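REVIEWER CHECKLIST
Item 1: Sequence provided? yes
Item 2: Single chain? yes
Item 3: Sequence as submitted:
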Amino acid sequence: MIYLDNAATTIKKPQCVKQAVFDAMDRLGNSARGMHGPALAAAREIYAAREKAAAFFGAGRAERTVFTSNATEALNIAIEGAIKPGMHVITTEAEHNSVLRPLYRKARKGVKLTIVKADNKGRILAEDIEKAICPETSWLFCTHASNVTGNLLPLVEIGKICRGKGVHLGVDVAQSGGCIPIDMGKTGIELLCFTGHKGLLGPQGTGGLCVGQDITLPPFKVGGSGIHSFEKEHPSIIPEALEAGTANGHSIAGLSAAFDFLKETKVENIQKHESCLMRIFYEQVEKIPGVTVYGDFEAEDRTAVVSLNIRDYDSKEMGDVLWREYDIAVRAGVHCAPLIHRALGTEKQGTIRFSFSWFNTEEEALQAAWAVKKLAF
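Item 4: Structure as written out by the authors:
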């Protein structure tokens, strides 16, 4: 199998990640639910993972990093907690439904929502975001990288604009975390939502939310916290405020090991390798008659994603053929990102998305390009 659906989830994980999950099954109890060895081991493991996540994203204090089940949960916690009726909020056409749907729900409850349009290459321009800001604007919530085109939003420039205008910045890094260096301090991000199972190379069922020092979020769900058990209200201090119930200690141990792997391997090296594979594939397919490629490939920095269509064939049918006849796993359809497809004119056809990982090879990239060529003729 040639697995090129890494933007959905990475299947090939570092051996240390798999081993960490396996070992945790035998040694971790319930964090903050006891003073015996296994419970304390779980608490230490989870806190160590907080420290690694905070350092990895330049988030500052470890206790401001909250673990969730995925980026979708993190985004719901962030948007539900930070945005109040009457606020003006900006987002973009590049967004995944994990950003759009919580914002649409807020819009139905009195939030004014502005959606910045993408150009014909799916790019979101910083100047268009700046034009959308008005005196009433409170937040900008946006993705770092499109899961359809691989285009990056200019976060450093956007962060400067937000700081200058007094606008808070929340960012979805599900597609870029582990693939592109990210620093909350340098970019001005105040709420950063990540998932563990994609570029971070960790287990499914992991994710998190890094909360800026000056941001307050109320509990999203309530219940057991391990502290203040006689109080009727859930604790308001982070991370307990946003982590009701038993933590996914076994998978967080795997995520912790993934952060170790990324630190040792270096994200810059991962970005270089994945970008090389993406360029090899792109340069082969973009010149095939009948193939249309979407996104900005003139940009120096982007994620290792290539979305394309073959003639007027249905993208899902082509994805099925790639799997059945060529043993190549890709994602086909609209990828839970409807607005960017409208901007690209692919809302009916969708796209076939090839996404590369640290564990893919040049041979696999060339083999996938050969399969596209065969299907185009």
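Item 5: Key structural point noted by reviewer: The domain at 15-265 is CATH 3.40.640.10 (Aspartate Aminotransferase; domain 2).
Item 6: Recommendation: ____
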